[in-house]
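Message: A physicist's question: would you kindly supply an amino acid chain plus fold tokens?
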Amino acid sequence: MSQYLKKEWVLLLGVITVLLFKSGGDGLLQNHMSAWPGMVLTAGLFVVVMAAIFAVVRHSDALAIKLGDPYGTLILTLSVILLEVVMISSVMLTGEANPVLARDTMFAVVMTVFNGLVGITLLLGGLKYHTQKYNSEGLKSYLVAIIPLALLCLVLPNFTSTSALGAMSAPLTITLVLASVGLYGVFLFIQTRSHTHFFMDEDHQDEHDFHGPLGSNLYHSIMLVGYLLVVILLAKSLAFPIDSTVSLLGAPPALGGLIVAVLILAPEAVGAAKAALNNQLQRALNLFFGSVLATIALTVPAVLLISHVIAQPIQLGLAPAEMVLLAITLLMASVSFSSGRTNSLNGVAHLILFVAYIILMFE
């Protein structure tokens, strides 16, 4: 037991920190944010969250070695996105009515991943290796599923709504649920059964960066879920100083949600950046594209079903400017990942779109 505690002391520290904040620390952050106790708590909270994030990457790397890709990256992606869906669902069930919560979260994930994180990763990899390779068949498979789901769920409701609040008809709701579940189910079959080679880089598929002895699959899986829970729970606590800072600066409320979303996606971002710097771009892109697809495919059915059960309105259609930005992003992704090679120019182009998204947020 002492051996495990010595190896996983960060998890123990994370659990203690969660208990501390959920038993009064959150209130202290809210009421004394500008005083020194609040500042010390915020700094300590950030350090623990970052330590847990790196532990998530460590255990996901271990699983990737033992299971091989695409299973290793799929486990990390599904763990993060499932917990994200749980967070959105819990807010819908217990918080104040917010019909655009799910829409804004999905759009933030799409823009952050496709433009921000992909842009940084391609730029870093391009600067180090000039040109990086990936399996274009795998990326095309992701886009074949992402493009119709993104447009059906985030654009089509604007043109078929039955009320000013964006409420959808029952047939359209059922269509979106079935399309999300059905398309994602077929994609998982392609990824894990019939066409697994689409999601592997033949030159680097067996190269993974992991330091230390490997444990059992069960051990690494339990540790992965444990650290992910710590990150998610503490990210919600970290939202208090973030929201206070955003309000103090007079920034739009959506900026706070974006920052929390970035924290939730941080395990994937760190893992993908390490993979790109090790010239394993396929693994990085599997994480990014998989998170975008899973976010839409799993969030939409969950929030639509919850909305129906609790009779709470939900609006999925984006604003006109956001629809244009989404269309440009999907088009840019289709162009960037069509040749099997990428460089720093692709990264800069995606980062420009991310900057445009941030500027649009302040308009």
Remarks:
- Strands lie at 132-133, 341-342.
